[in-house]
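Service request form, structural biology core

Requester: graduate student, group of Dr. S.
Request type: structure prediction, single chain
Budget code: on file
Notes: please return the result as structure tokens.

Sequence provided:
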Amino acid sequence: MSYTRVRSVSESCKILSLTSKSRVGILWDPDDPAAAIAVAFPLKVQLHSLKVRGPKPDIEVAFRAASKGRSSGLIIVRNSLVNRHPKEIASLGLN
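Core staff response, request fulfilled:
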């Protein structure tokens, strides 16, 4: 999978629409209303929803699902839950 740091989901969408990526994972917290709006943003790529929630989100399971689903890229919708796990996300992203 490829990773690009951007400031917003809409910016991610613009970048992805310019690439040949056809299936993209999106890591997000469904309990965050702002994240749900971001996920609904229209794309020219197929999204693979990777929901994480709760005090101990299983981010490794989400990454395995992205790999199994053949996601060629990943958008991370940042919020307080996701922001608490940068090392785990970075480590899993390198594997």
